[in-house]
Write a structure and sequence with these properties.
The protein is α+β, with helices and mostly antiparallel strands. The chain has one domain (9-129). The protein is built from 4 helices and 3 strands. A 3-stranded antiparallel β-sheet has the order 2-1-3, with helices on one face. The longest helix is centred in the last third of the chain and has 16 residues, at 115-130. The model is unreliable at 19-23, 99-106 and 138-143 (pLDDT under 50).
């Protein structure tokens, strides 16, 4: 059973960020900072047997905490996935697509492996990718939404 089952979903979304009840993204230009409840949610994630699977399933989600990782940590993981050819960044420009940097909001990632292989990649590489880079913790919540 998931550790988050039955808990308030707002715990996993920074204040002023994604509103789970309205399925809406943040309106501000900067991501909101993590609050105390978000830090508790991260700790709950790390007690869950399905944490890495949750992270893999939500690796491309731009808001909230999934698999114990905030959006900035997932961005670093996506960059590593792209560097290793596990995922490809795809931008859409006026109906055509290509592996180019985004110039608009219509962009995304395409996995080059199965979700099971992504889970394996995360088990093998997540800690290494995030080591040496500031992770979102109780003492460093600035800009970690």
């Amino acid at each position: 059973m998931k550790a988050c089952a039955g808990l308030d979903t707002d715990m996993w979304f920074p204040s002023g960020g994604y509103d789970a009840s309205r399925n809406s993204k943040p309106s501000g230009k900067r991501p909101p900072k993590l609050n105390r409840n978000n830090l508790i949610a991260k700790k709950i994630c790390f007690t869950c047997e399905e944490r890495v699977e949750c992270l893999a399933h939500n690796i491309f989600t731009t808001c909230g905490i999934f698999g114990g990782r905030c959006s900035k940590e997932r961005i670093r993981l996506r960059a590593a996935l792209t560097e290793e050819g596990v995922a490809v960044f795809v931008a859409t420009f006026g109906g055509r697509t290509g592996p180019l940097p985004p110039t608009s909001q219509s962009y995304g990632y395409t996995l080059q492996v199965s979700e099971e292989e992504l889970v394996g990649w995360l088990y093998d590489n997540e800690k290494e990718v995030l080591d040496g880079q500031r992770q979102c913790t109780e003492t460093s919540t600035r800009d970690c939404a």
